[in-house]
Automatic annotation (TrEMBL):
Membrane topology summary: Multi-pass membrane protein
Chain intervals for the UniProt region annotation (Disordered): 20-53
TM stretches of this protein: 161-184, 190-208, 253-271, 277-297, 379-398, 418-439, 451-471, 499-520, 532-552, 558-579
Keyword terms of this UniProt record: Membrane, Transmembrane, Transmembrane helix, Transport
Descriptive protein name: PTR2-domain-containing protein
Tagged with keyword Phosphoprotein: no
InterPro entries tied to this protein: MFS_trans_sf (IPR036259), POT_fam (IPR000109)
Highest rank taxon of the organism: Eukaryota
Family recorded in the similarity comment: Belongs to the major facilitator superfamily. Proton-dependent oligopeptide transporter (POT/PTR) (TC 2.A.17) family.
Main location group: membrane
Pfam family, one: PTR2
Subcellular location: Membrane
Length: 616
């Protein structure tokens, strides 16, 4: 379809022509430091006077980061508060469910056992605690699929976030009720309130997660949708690369997440140990209520995309049309057919003799959907990666309880993970990634994910070695978790440090990159949904982890960690073998133009156009 035909399509669909910069509002202007020469070619000029690079310049000029607006950090602080609430609450789940109510301590009826005691409440054992924690992970990460669909099609990101906050708040309250000392005395009632609270808590968390990360990146993309030329003070012409900048946005966003996680987890495990579980669940709830306050106060400054309606159904029909005649009883044949170069070409509107009524979009949107499906294929491998990551909040916490703690709560040690992330994210951002680029190596997103698999595998190798020495040194042998707390093996809990460091490195490589990949590869009106697909892989992994629950007890824990290490290693090799050719297409996929899309009669014509300061 020609560019003129494309403009005609959008004019007919919306009643107006799209903005020059890919349909974005141009209310934001460039900073003086991002000025361009006066003699720039009009054909390569953007709506705010920025000069777009030529194909030759894209290959030869140095790429630099753009300026990150203060509003991006405000949204990051909102997520930091939500993560404090989430991790502060979930940090004590294992002890609350697994360990017995103490008989001694400052407040034993509330589960607080003091410095040398073990905090606990319901006393249901390690397998039950592992199962409930995995259920919480599964539910919290399956709900982003639903939240993303509602946001993209009906509510928009802001309304969905507000609904998430209300639902999660009710869940928080039910979990607090389960921890009240008088309720703990009735374990069945406490468990019922706790499980119902988990369902609502996880629903709110899921709705929140799939919308906040696309929202933060859109704040930058709205004013800088394309690479543009900037002249440095020394006269050097450089390319301000939105993809590079969005990668930095997500690194800093993830750092704020881990500030919230670190403070929440450390403070709440001490609250559990010295006051009781009710306080560990109450304080995160209070901080969580700051989320809507920050969202409302800064509402007029946010850039947002309204919902576009029926986008999922149209993408599904488009996929069905593209795959017509390509399905096979042999899954390998189907996979090869899906990867054929012409699979999406035949589904483009310009190729249809009789275009279906639901095909209210142009060829460029088909390319966007194709790119989004490629991202979802990448995410299909993430459940294997999450297997090693998930041990951090379940079995490694239980492993810590069998070693010398010296007054440190067993569920505070895993805070080495967010602590490492807070330290090493700036190191990767400022030194490691730039150094790799300086060496002329293109460390693409898929290469980073592959490195994440490797680090996850190594963390499980370390955990298996530690567990072997626990069994060797424990007076109870391979039943170390049954030993009295006063007779742990001669092994400090801090030997777990390498395992947590490796998990942190794997997150930098795989988890942060996954969020970035979901945002940059999804169709612009399906970003919440594709982000939901990314998080859904975590839910699938939690369900998959249930298969390993029989190994999550003495004397089989060495086999547990070894098995997960082997599966992660094989998964990482298979991941790279599958996507090694896609890795070369990254720049090409990022450069795709935004397609024209008409929602239909169910959504206003201006749906999908970025707006600034719209009421939520």
């Amino acid at each position: 379809m020609s560019s003129g035909a494309n403009l005609d399509f959008v004019e007919a669909a919306t009643g107006e022509l799209p903005g020059i910069a890919e349909g974005y509002s141009n209310e934001k202007t460039l900073e003086k430091s991002e000025s361009v020469p006066d003699n720039a070619s009009d054909e390569l000029m953007g709506p705010n006077g920025e000069q777009y690079p030529t194909a030759e310049e894209m290959q030869t000029l140095r790429r630099v980061y753009g300026k990150i607006d203060w509003m991006i950090y405000i949204i990051g602080i909102v997520e930091m508060c939500e993560r404090f609430a989430y991790y502060g609450t979930t940090a004590v789940f294992v002890n609350f469910v697994q360990q017995d109510l103490p008989t001694e301590g400052p407040h034993p009826s509330a589960g607080a056992a003091g410095t040398d005691g073990q905090a606990g409440a319901l006393g249901l054992g390690q397998r039950t605690s592992t199962s409930l924690v995995l259920f919480n992970q599964f539910w919290s990460y399956i709900m982003p699929m639903i939240g993303g669909w509602l946001a993209d099609e009906y509510w928009g990101r802001f309304k969905t976030i507000y609904v998430a906050i209300v639902v999660a708040s009710i869940g928080h309250i039910l979990i607090i009720i389960a921890a009240i000392p008088s309720v703990i005395q009735n374990p069945d009632g406490a468990l019922a309130s706790f499980v119902l609270g988990l369902v609502l808590f996880g629903s709110g968390v899921g709705f929140f997660k799939c919308n906040i990360s696309p929202l933060i990146a859109e704040q930058y993309e709205a004013s800088h949708p394309k690479p543009f030329i900037r002249v440095e003070p020394n006269g050097e012409r450089v390319i301000v690369d939105p993809g590079l900048t969005i990668s930095r946005v997500y690194l800093r966003y993830y750092q704020l997440i881990n500030v919230g996680a670190l403070v929440g987890q450390i403070s709440m495990v001490y609250a559990e140990k010295y006051v009781g579980f009710w306080l560990s669940f109450t304080l995160p709830t209070i901080l969580f209520l700051f989320c809507p306050l920050l969202m409302i106060v800064c509402s007029k400054y946010y850039v947002r995309r309204p919902p576009t309606g029926s986008v999922l159904s149209k993408a599904t029909k488009l996929y069905g049309l593209a795959m017509r005649g390509r399905w096979s009883a042999n899954p390998i044949t189907t996979w090869k057919n899906l990867g054929a170069d012409d699979v999406w070409e035949s589904a483009k509107p310009s190729r249809q003799e009789r275009k279906p009524g639901w095909m209210t979009f142009d060829d460029a949107w088909v390319d966007e959907v194709r790119r989004g499906f490629k991202a979802c294929h990448v995410f299909l491998w993430y459940p294997i990666y999450w297997l090693s990551y998930g041990q951090m909040t379940t079995n490694l916490v239980s492993q810590a309880a069998t070693m010398k703690l010296n007054g440190v709560p067993n569920d505070v040690v895993n805070n080495l993970n967010p602590f490492a992330l807070i330290i090493f994210i700036p190191v990767f951002d400022k030194f490691i990634y730039p150094s790799i680029a300086h060496l002329g190596l293109n460390f693409t997103p898929l290469k980073k994910v592959h490195a994440g698999f490797a680090c996850g595998m190594l963390s499980m190798v370390v955990a298996a070695i530690i567990q072997h020495y626990i069994y060797t040194k424990s007076p109870c042998g391979k039943y170390a978790s049954s030993c009295d707390a006063d007779s742990p093996p001669d092994l400090s809990v801090w030997v777990q440090t390498p395992a947590y460091l490796l998990i942190a490195f794997s997150e930098i490589f795989a988890s942060i990159t996954g969020l970035e990949y979901a945002f940059t590869k999804a169709p612009r009106n399906m970003r919440s949904l594709v982000t939901g697909v990314f998080w859904f892989t975590h839910a699938f992994s939690a369900a998959l982890s249930q298969a390993f629950v029989p190994l999550a007890d003495d004397p089989l824990l060495v086999w547990l960690y070894t098995t997960i290490a082997v599966i992660t290693a094989v998964g990482g090799i298979a991941f790279w073998w599958t996507f090694r050719s896609l890795d070369h297409e990254d720049d090409e996929l990022n450069a795709l133009p935004e397609g024209a899309y008409r929602a239909g009669n169910d959504v206003p014509a201006e749906a999908g156009k970025v707006q600034v300061g719209e009421k939520a």
